[in-house]
Amino acid sequence: MRFNTVTIKDIAKALGLSTSTVSRALRGGYEISEETKKTVTEYAEKINYRPNPIALSLKERRSYSIGIVVCEIANNFFSQAINGMESVAYTAGYNVTITQSHERFDREVLNVEHLASRSVDGLLISLSSESADVSYLKDLHKKGLPIVLFDRVTSEIDTHKVIADNFKGAYDATDYLIKLGHKRIAHFTSSAHLSVTGERLEGYKAALRDHGIPFNEDFVKFCGHGGINQEEIDDATKELLALNERPDAIFIAQDKLSTGCLHAIKKIAPDYFTGIKIAGFTNSNVVDLFNPPITAVRQPAFEMGQAAMELLIHLIESKMPVTEFETRILQTQLIVNNSKY
């Protein structure tokens, strides 16, 4: 059965008015009497009339829709960020279309091209772990598509960006582990080319350096699939266990990797890791239930989503070309035993 929407023609026929009169009455046209406006608007509300978004987009050359591309909606950080984006978008009269790359470059490109072909007014994107080449995004940006990057960003596109203070978050977590007495601290992280990977790695190194602890490359494990491939995390865990000097603590740079690492620990060496201390980036609300427990580096995901959407809508609605861009850096929080540090 085909769904038929109510049109202006239907209202005009029911009220015995012309379609142009109904159209002007709904827009509040000055040439239409107040009595007619009231009759039309009351009837439109009664039958739950909504303007046709396709017709509006053709007329105004805007779709009032925004595309969002993330690696995985089930990721705690991204689901919270999307909530922030939607809270701003819907208030401003925009709808959103959310897609997932699942950490794959080809899926990311397909999603972006699909959104662009649907004439979204702008795009919010966090790059996948495979996205070393962003030339396709650069081309769309040069053609005029407003784009704002968040979390995983690139310096190759001159636009607004919203990120967390990844260096400080990593530094605080590593510093905390060191102050507990640990000196052999492993580091699980994502693809080397990602912005968050480099920033968090540098924070980890800086904390080691400030405490006089030599950096050991063997303790750093890059997981190119960003935690989606459990086998990759298992292999990294086995490599750490094969070292002559095994780590006595782990700093994990990503939400999905944190839970993946716990699975690997329980499966591969539950006895060895019984007393190991773990700190990592995660926005899970149940970290206190994890075993072993995780000291969480929490990003202000909701606020990051809000800020990214606000900046994108500003780009979309600006009457003049925007040539000056900003990178907003929001602070992380270290959560120890449900307390903020």
UniProtKB/TrEMBL annotation:
Transmembrane segments: none annotated. This is LacI family transcriptional regulator. Gene3D superfamilies: 3.40.50.2300, lambda repressor-like DNA-binding domains. It holds the Pfam family LacI. Keywords: DNA-binding, Transcription, Transcription regulation. Residues 6-60 form the HTH lacI-type domain. InterPro entries: HTH_LacI, Lambda_DNA-bd_dom_sf, Peripla_BP/Lac1_sug-bd_dom, Peripla_BP_I. One of its GO terms (molecular function) is transcription cis-regulatory region binding.
